[in-house]
Design brief:
The complex is a heterodimer of chains A (286) and B (156).
Chain A lengths: L1 H14 L1 H8 L8 E3 L2 E3 L2 E3 L8 E3 L7 H8 L7 H10 L11 H4 L3 H4 L3 H4 L2 E3 L4 E3 L1 H13 L9 H12 L15 H12 L10 H5 L6 E2 L2 E2 L10 E3 L4 E3 L1 H11 L10 H12 L11 E2 L1
Parallel strand pairs in A: 9-11
Antiparallel strand pairs in A: 1-2, 3-4, 5-6, 7-8, 9-10
Chain B lengths: L2 H22 L27 H9 L30 H4 L2 H9 L1 H4 L30 H12 L4
The chains are: A alpha+beta (286), B mainly alpha (156).
Chain lengths: 286, 156
């Protein structure tokens, strides 16, 4: 029943946004978040060399009703995906007759911290890989199974499940591994490159204008610590590469393929920009 | 020469004159737009004068200017007006028409390079422009003049 009330309130909020727009102007909300008793760092001191002093989770830029949805796991619609991921964990697939569970018997323990530390250097492919690519690597090398198609429901569910095991842990990348620093540099260059007919870079909105309203959207710092994120607009879990592509598409540009070098570099850099914020997966956003 | 043929020649002569007439009053191509030393654009980019009424539609239409996504106009009854850019209330007092035109055409030239505001009538755009939009501007020359005409009505 409580779920229904909150959902109704958030639907109402969507319709009453013009009035709320007046109150939502400017700074992120001052609020604290804990999920299932786990304290979530929604602010963090920026790492050295960061353009901001303080990092803010996108949670602080959302309406109170949306924030409330994330606060309670029973109301968070993204938790369906996490539960699906938990079920997939023990499903045997591929020629080796294995499931994820065959190697990682206690995901709640074994996967703790994993989601907070990716993208990670992959010596085999000589590039950073994210959770989605790590799952594919396991499937191909250990299970003898096909990699998932981009944004397959199973890919999103397993990624959300794995990242959820790091809920509350601070995002921290190891840039000293392999050539991570070089990829970080490339990602940074992408972040500041204007694309498309609208001639916009990531930084134009998420660095220069975070806190402003663009239409009914309160521009955040564009942090990725909550991905895959449940997006109310799409009524689905949305992967980080899906969101990157959506943003670039909105500049009226051709957009890179998921898991391409361009987007892996961007994910590496943007993830670093959220260093110290807690993993929030599955976050709930507008 | 038959009278019919003579009539045809005369008619085609008029046709040629009419064509030449319209060719003289063409829109300024985006690559030919000239900025003055002070950063403005004095010559209208469209052959026809701008219509403030049409301009108001361009301002609010998401598929056209979508200006209110980032700017507020208090007198407009449009939902979800943004504040990424400054309010346009009184903008007709603050800028002369040549500057209004220049800012709409290409604010990166008229204002400063780092501004988030897109240029609505320029081919100086970002990388990897969507294939079907290559060589195209966001607004037509006429729509730019319509917007400029509307902005001039925003006085306090």
């Amino acid at each position: 029943m409580k779920t229904k009330v909150i959902l109704a309130a958030s639907v109402l909020a969507l319709f009453s946004s013009p009035a709320m727009l007046v109150t939502a102007y400017g700074d992120p909300a001052e609020a604290e978040l804990s999920i299932d008793g786990e304290k979530i760092a929604v602010t963090a001191a920026a790492p050295e060399g960061h353009p901001f002093d303080t990092l803010y989770s996108g949670w602080l830029y959302r309406e109170p009703e949306t924030r409330a949805l994330e606060e309670d796991s029973f109301e968070n619609p993204g938790m369906f995906g996490v539960e699906q991921g938990a079920e997939l964990w023990s499903v045997v697939e591929g020629s080796a007759g294995k499931s994820c569970e065959s190697c990682h018997a206690n995901p709640e323990e074994d996967m703790k911290g994993v989601g907070a530390s990716y993208p990670k250097w992959d010596a085999d492919s000589k590039r950073p890989i994210n959770i989605e690519l790590q799952i594919d690597k396991c499937r191909e090398e250990n299970m003898g199974a096909e990699p998932y198609k981009f944004d397959a429901p199973q890919q999103k569910a397993l990624t959300a499940f794995i990242k959820h095991q790091s809920l509350g842990m601070p995002v921290k990348l190891d840039l000293s591994e392999g050539e991570m620093q070089k990829w970080w540099d490339q990602g940074k260059e992408m972040y500041y490159t204007r694309t498309g007919q609208l001639n916009l870079s990531c930084s134009n909105c998420h660095e220069d204008h975070s806190g402003n309203m663009i239409r009914a959207d309160h521009l955040s710092q564009g942090q990725v610590n909550g991905f895959p994120t449940y997006r109310l607009k799409q009524s689905a879990l949305v992967s980080v590469h899906n969101r990157f592509r959506g943003c670039i598409r909105d500049t009226r540009a051709e957009f890179p393929k998921a898991f391409s070098d361009d987007l892996m570099a961007l994910e590496t850099y943007v993830t670093w920009r959220g260093s110290g914020l807690s993993v929030e997966t599955p976050a709930v956003r507008q | 020469m038959t009278s019919t043929l003579r009539a045809l020649i005369v008619a085609s002569g008029f046709g040629a004159v009419a064509l030449a007439g319209s060719a003289m009053a063409q829109d300024v191509k985006p690559e030919a737009v000239a900025f003055s030393d002070s950063g403005g654009i004095e010559t209208p980019v469209a052959a026809q004068a701008g219509s403030a009424e049409a301009g108001q539609k361009v301002l609010t239409d998401r598929k056209l200017g979508n200006c209110v996504a980032c700017h507020q106009v208090s007198t407009l009854d449009a939902p979800f007006q943004g504040n990424v850019g400054p309010s346009l209330d009184g903008v007709g007092d603050r800028y002369e028409p040549d500057m209004l035109r220049a800012i709409v055409v290409n604010p990166k030239k008229a204002l400063y390079d780092g501004t988030i505001m897109p240029g609505f009538y320029t081919l100086d755009v970002g990388k990897h422009v969507r294939e079907d939009l290559v060589g195209k501007t966001i607004l037509s020359a006429q729509q730019v003049e319509d917007v400029v005409a509307y902005l001039q009505t925003l006085k306090e």
